[in-house]
Amino acid sequence: MVTAILGALGAFAAWFSVIFVKDIATHKGQLEDNSWTKVFGIGFLTNFLDTLGIGSFAPTTALLRGFKQVKDRVIPGTLNVSCTLPVIAEAFIFITVINVDIITLISMLSAATIGAWVGAGVVSKLPEKNVQIVMGVALLITAFLMAAGQLGWMPGGGSALNESFDGVKNNLIYESMNIDGKILGVPIGVTGIKLVIAVFVNFILGALMTAGIGLYAPCMALVYLLGMSPRVAFPIMMGSCSFLMPVASMKFVKEGAYNRRAAIGITIGGLMGVFIAAYIVKSLPLTILTYLVIAVILYTSITMLIAAFKSKEKNVNLELE
């Protein structure tokens, strides 16, 4: 079944690549005036961090805005289109190396993909100030979830069995793992009402992803809250994004609601960042990096909300005049 999932990912990658390249070729004389160096560097750095589980949408948004590379109105589309191929590469890696219950995995991936299909058609046509408000609030929530995880406020993973165990027990799917030198059974999937909750929430997260709201942090929180091993968050969240992003990105490409030049640079830099992070970097102190990213996310959230409300005040003043 894992082979079938990877085969489907390959098909999605090929399908998206053809449409993406065709759109770029059609508009090759109308590309924006972004700096190739800046967008390539942004893609490399943020997707490098993304592969380590930190997430790429929030820092990419912050850097694109900080270096004035993309207008706020097309940030959601640019994020989805440019990060699609790098995220598919991540999914190949983590679905291959980390075990997760196949029913849980397929159910959550499918829910996120359907959610993205429903959400992209609406989000791509939203007014700029609406996009800013949605992204600003969502980034603020994401920062809180990441900080809560770092400070130990979030419950992390299910309780391991006091014995080595592979299989189903107490309606949970377990796998034997080495924990502090002991081989214990740890949940790698969910069943029953927990599976229903997982599917429903991942559907919502898939729809919100098309607004430029990263799925990683809330999906990781969901995995923890449902009692699964923190490790399985990686194939679930990266697999979810890898299936939903091509679907969402197709609509953004069709609407022309993305920055083409930035998408090219971020995609190329992002792919390089993913493979270097996955195959060369074996260990990295992520605590300081994570706090830095949280600070960037908070800054971006605040600046977006300020920009949105300034725009709203400006419109009110114009109406009064």
From TrEMBL:
<feature type="transmembrane region" description="Helical">
    <location>
        <begin position="208"/>
        <end position="226"/>
    </location>
</feature>
<feature type="transmembrane region" description="Helical">
    <location>
        <begin position="104"/>
        <end position="124"/>
    </location>
</feature>
<feature type="transmembrane region" description="Helical">
    <location>
        <begin position="183"/>
        <end position="201"/>
    </location>
</feature>
<dbReference type="InterPro" id="IPR002781">
    <property type="entry name" value="TM_pro_TauE-like"/>
</dbReference>
<keyword id="KW-1133">Transmembrane helix</keyword>
<dbReference type="Pfam" id="PF01925">
    <property type="entry name" value="TauE"/>
</dbReference>
<dbReference type="GO" id="GO:0005886">
    <property type="term" value="C:plasma membrane"/>
</dbReference>
<feature type="transmembrane region" description="Helical">
    <location>
        <begin position="288"/>
        <end position="309"/>
    </location>
</feature>
<keyword id="KW-1003">Cell membrane</keyword>
<keyword id="KW-0472">Membrane</keyword>
<feature type="transmembrane region" description="Helical">
    <location>
        <begin position="131"/>
        <end position="153"/>
    </location>
</feature>
<keyword id="KW-0812">Transmembrane</keyword>
<protein>
    <recommendedName>
        <fullName>Probable membrane transporter protein</fullName>
    </recommendedName>
</protein>
<feature type="transmembrane region" description="Helical">
    <location>
        <begin position="79"/>
        <end position="98"/>
    </location>
</feature>
<feature type="transmembrane region" description="Helical">
    <location>
        <begin position="45"/>
        <end position="67"/>
    </location>
</feature>
<comment type="similarity">
    <text>Belongs to the 4-toluene sulfonate uptake permease (TSUP) (TC 2.A.102) family.</text>
</comment>
<feature type="transmembrane region" description="Helical">
    <location>
        <begin position="262"/>
        <end position="282"/>
    </location>
</feature>
